[in-house]
Amino acid sequence: MAFSEELRARMPSEDERTAPNLAAGTPVLEICRTAFTEDERPVEVNQMLLDAGSYVLEYCLSS
């Protein structure tokens, strides 16, 4: 299985800020991960919203 991710840093909407009680001015990381089968068919999409000040993302990539 293969994965593709789109990662964006941005300011949260008002709804996104109040739901997890983010402090005013706190940016978020928006991640959209898509899983693909061996024949490149998408089979799962996972959308995540993270407090940008609370996470460290680490990626190990190989070809």
Question: Could you name the key traits of this structure?
Answer:
8% helix; mainly beta; 3 strands
Amino-to-carboxy terminus distance: 13 Å
Order of helices and strands: EHEE
The rough form would be described as elongated
On the 0 to 100 scale, the average pLDDT is: 91
The biggest sheet amounts to: 3 strands, antiparallel
User: What's the domain count?
Assistant: 1
The number of strands is: 3
What is the number of helical segments per DSSP (H or I, 4+ residues)?
1
Outline the low-pLDDT stretches.
Answer: none
* Helix proportion: under 10%
Helix/strand structural class:
mainly beta
Q: How much beta, percentage-wise?
A: 35-45%
The strands making up the biggest β-sheet line up spatially as 1-2-3
User: What is the radius of gyration computed over CA atoms, rounded to a whole number of angstroms?
Assistant: 14 Å
